[in-house]
Write a structure and sequence with these properties.
Layout lengths: L1 H30 L2 E2 L5 E2 L7 E6 L3 E6 L3 E3 L9 E7 L2 E10 L8 H8 L5 E8 L2 E8 L5 E8 L2 E8 L3 H14 L1 E2 L3 H25 L1
Antiparallel strand pairs: 1-2, 3-4, 4-12, 5-6, 6-7, 7-11, 8-9, 9-10, 10-11
């Protein structure tokens, strides 16, 4: 009799365990909570929406929604001075477009000058399809930057990595999405060239007549 009761208790315990496991799986599916291999619940992190910045200085780039964008209209020296900040994460990303510094003749020489501090190193990289230089300064603050001499000016993107994981991600996104736009003078020049070609065709037809 005792053996029969013990069997019933064991069977009942197994049934309760199966019912509990089924209820947990159902709850996990309906609430969107996943379980990691260690058995702990992992809540998916939503991907931030990306916004497009179209700057009159001649570039576009994307940045995560929620960041504060400061165009620094008080800066009357540089062609662009766009700063991205987030009150919850110390640090920033700044996009500069400025005159070529004294002593700099090309992108390579800019990279040497930017990596002059003893705590800095530089690498070959690219920006919007152009050969560029990447520099990393580790002291007194960790700052990463990418710059290129293009179309007669310096295009320079830097990130102050105070909150390194956050701002490194923002910086990488800006670099990957960065593109150069034709300037107004370039667009006007291409239109004039196109019109000149059409005029020459008309003149040749008149001569043939």
């Amino acid at each position: 009799m005792m053996k029969k009761s013990l069997v019933l208790i064991i069977v009942g315990g197994l049934l309760l365990g199966l019912v509990g496991a089924g209820a947990y799986l159902y709850y996990s599916k309906t609430t969107g909570v996943t379980t990691s291999p260690t058995g702990t619940d992992v809540t998916p992190v939503p991907t931030p929406k990306l916004l497009m910045w179209d700057d009159p200085a001649g570039f576009t780039m994307q940045y995560p929604e929620g960041l504060t964008v400061n165009k620094h209209d008080e800066d009357l020296v540089n062609y662009a001075h766009v700063e991205l900040t987030d009150s919850a994460h110390p640090g920033n990303v700044i996009i500069w477009v400025k005159d070529i510094p004294s002593g700099v003749t090309d992108t390579a020489s800019w990279g040497k000058k930017a990596s002059a501090p003893a705590s800095a190193i530089s690498f070959d990289t690219s920006l919007a399809g152009q050969s560029a230089q990447k520099t990393l300064v580790s002291s007194p603050e960790k700052i990463v930057s990418v710059g290129v001499i293009y179309d007669g000016v310096l295009w320079y993107i830097e990130a102050k990595l105070t909150d390194e994981p956050y701002w490194q991600s923002v910086f990488d996104g800006v670099i990957q999405s960065f593109t150069f736009k034709p300037t107004a003078s370039q667009a006007a020049g291409s239109t004039v060239n196109s019109g000149g070609a059409n005029d020459r065709v008309v003149d040749e037809e008149e001569v043939l007549e």
